[in-house]
């Protein structure tokens, strides 16, 4: 197979022509790194290697773009990248970002858990569920939660004072507040105890 043309395209891509026909569009930097010059003879294996390297570089660039906005777990990034790139490219790109310290599930989980507790006022059960949804490993979740102490009754009071203080005057409002708190992961026993100073809850 002979490379007969390399033509620049948009977004850092170049069209690679082999034996006079358009073969594939690849990352321009990768084409240069593989020394795919016009007139060069290449093998199928060399072309496949260039395609994989191009795919991996584009995948890594997108991952860097995503984490420039906010931190992500590895699984979260993988799920987003997999929409456009091969499984092998995603794994290779994420492995490289982990080596560079740019993707770190331990750091991500600790930061996210701290935000969920301090900003969202979630209980440990709610934090566990959110971390699980982000693809964080169960053992890592256990480790992170073992490092954190949460006063769940105080969390409930903070939420009630911010959102539900005026809704506790009637039964409908009380039930709405209790149901919302339970959906966040608080136990009914903790809710009842925390709200005792606001209202008298009857056992259901």
Written overview of the protein:
- With 204 residues, this protein is mainly alpha-helical.
- The chain folds into 3 domains: 3-99, Arc Repressor Mutant, subunit A; 105-146; 152-195, no CATH class.
- Helices cover 58% and strands 9% of the residues.
- It is built from 10 helices and 3 strands; from the N terminus they run E-E-E-H-H-H-H-H-H-H-H-H-H.
- The chain has helices at residues 28-33, 44-67, 74-81, 87-99, 105-118, 124-133, 138-146, 152-164, 171-183, 188-195, and strands at residues 3-8, 13-18, 21-27.
- It has a 3-stranded antiparallel sheet with strand order 1-2-3.
- The longest helix has 24 residues, at 44-67.
- The protein is elongated.
- The model has no long low-confidence stretch (mean pLDDT 89).
């Amino acid at each position: 197979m002979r490379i007969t043309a390399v033509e620049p395209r948009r977004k850092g891509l170049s069209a690679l022509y082999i034996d006079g026909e358009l073969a594939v569009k690849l990352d321009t930097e990768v084409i240069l790194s593989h020394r795919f010059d016009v007139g060069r003879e290449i093998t199928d294996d060399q072309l496949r290697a260039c395609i994989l390297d191009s795919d991996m570089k584009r995948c890594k660039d997108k991952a860097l773009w995503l984490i420039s906005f906010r931190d992500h777990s590895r699984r979260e990034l993988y799920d987003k990248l997999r929409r456009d790139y091969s499984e092998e490219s995603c794994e290779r790109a994420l492995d490289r970002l982990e080596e560079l310290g740019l993707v770190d599930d331990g750091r991500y989980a600790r930061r996210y858990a701290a935000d969920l507790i301090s900003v969202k006022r979630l209980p440990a059960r709610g934090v566990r569920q959110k971390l699980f949804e982000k693809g964080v490993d169960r053992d890592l979740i256990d480790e992170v939660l073992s490092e954190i102490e949460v006063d769940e009754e105080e969390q409930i009071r903070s939420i009630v004072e911010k959102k539900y203080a005026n809704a506790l005057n009637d039964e409908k409002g009380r039930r709405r507040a209790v149901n919302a708190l339970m959906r966040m992961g608080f136990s009914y026993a903790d809710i009842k105890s925390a709200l005792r100073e606001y209202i008298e809850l009857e056992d259901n």
